[in-house]
Design brief:
CATH architecture of the largest domain: 2-Layer Sandwich
Structural class: alpha+beta
Number of domains: 2
Bound molecules: 1,6-di-O-phosphono-beta-D-fructofuranose, magnesium ion
Number of helices: 8
Oligomer: single chain
Mean pLDDT: 95
CATH topology of the largest domain: Fructose-1,6-Bisphosphatase, Chain A, domain 1
Low-confidence stretches: none
């Protein structure tokens, strides 16, 4: 089998797109290298002293895990000197990270959730890293929050890694979605699946059922119908999965279809939802749409949302197109009352 490494894949993609500037390729390679280092740290577990709490809170008011902090540092250090970035933003940092003056600046903005699925770290369940790439209109100028306030449709690349039994990198440059597996002997990511595609229909859904009593009516109705199975209006049985690591739940959907929901509920309504738009919902929505799926808030297409804050939260409904459309239709019907 021809083994295509990430580097070769990116060089060929750049050639096909006739892109002169190799900064985007360099950026993706540096992010991948940082994820390799994170994968090594996670693999050590308690032997590496990386499990447990860091003893600090992030801007979301959540207790940070040691691996949240370590992954954040690894991504910052790897990316700040390469000359391909105008700035970075992370779930674990309140403010954007400007490129230190001693380093050259580039034209891209990198946003990331350095460690996704933090509640699963100490119990050895798959976690991941999620990233999104934008172009900076004011490259070379002082960095501000508003430089990042671009709709998801403006993303030039997005990806996630899953640190599971094997370490996978899933990537889109706006021309399909491709999966790379980390070859630990070779030390590089190797292309193992091209053009991932999400089936339009599915019998599998993922939601945190323990929040059921807090959900809005449209979600109550949708999930009730799923649970009634073939005896109910859907006329078929549905199965449920919930890993509680968005990367793992979304990767399952990219592999065999499904629906992922973290809808608005009365617990999170004040903050607008649970998951973050800029470095969770937008990159995942870009990837899912590139694989033939759909992604909404239940009411609007996620990629069309105009961001207002670096850490703003939104409801998320994504995956197999026909189920996303049904959930969204129930919301719109519900609002017509
Ligand atoms: O704990 P819950 O309610 O099941 O929420 C799980 C969700 O929260 C997250 O862990 C939030 O992400 P972080 O771990 O990066 O904060 C998602 O990965 C996951 O989908
Ligand atoms: Mg996350
Ligand atoms: Mg996180």
């Amino acid at each position: 089998m021809r083994r295509i490494t990430l580097t070769r894949f990116l060089i060929e993609a750049q050639r096909q797109q006739g892109a002169q500037n190799s900064d985007l390729r360099l950026l993706i390679e540096v992010v991948a290298r940082a994820c390799k280092a994170i994968s090594v740290a996670i693999g050590k577990g308690s032997l590496g002293g990386v499990l447990g709490d860091a003893g600090s809170d992030n801007v979301q008011g959540e207790a940070q895990k040691k691996l949240d902090v370590l992954s954040n540092e690894i991504l910052l250090e790897a990316n700040e000197w390469g000359g391909h970035l105008a700035g970075m933003a992370s779930e674990e940092m309140e403010l954007p990270h400007a490129i230190p003056t001693e380093y050259p600046k580039g034209e891209y903005l990198l946003l990331f959730d350095p460690l996704d699925g933090s509640s699963n770290i100490d119990v050895n369940i798959s976690v991941g890293t999620i990233f999104s790439v934008l172009k900076c209109a004011n490259a070379g100028c002082d960095l501000h929050d508003h430089d990042f306030m671009q709709k998801g449709t403006q993303q030039v690349a997005a990806g996630y890694t899953v640190y599971g039994p094997s370490t996978l990198l899933v990537l889109t440059l706006g021309n399909g979605v491709h999966c790379f597996t980390l070859d630990r002997e070779l030390g590089s990511f190797v292309l193992t699946k091209e053009n991932l595609s999400i089936p339009e229909d599915t019998r599998e859904f993922a939601i945190n059922m323990s929040n059921q009593r807090f959900w809005e009516k449209p979600v109550q109705r949708y999930v009730d119908e799923l649970l009634q199975g073939k005896e109910g209006p859907r006329g078929k049985d549905f199965n449920m999965r919930w890993v509680a690591s968005m990367v793992a739940d979304v990767h399952r959907i990219l592999t065999r279809g499904g629906l992922f929901m973290y809808p608005l509920d009365s617990k999170t309504v004040a903050q607008g939802g649970k998951l973050r738009l800029m470095y969770e919902a937008n990159p995942m929505a870009f990837i899912v749409e590139q694989a033939g799926g759909a992604a909404t808030t239940g009411r609007e297409r996620i990629l069309d949302l105009q961001p207002t804050g670096l850490h703003q939260r939104v409801p998320v409904v994504l995956g197999s197109k026909n189920e996303v459309e049904r959930v969204t239709r129930y919301h719109l019907e519900g609002s017509q009352g």
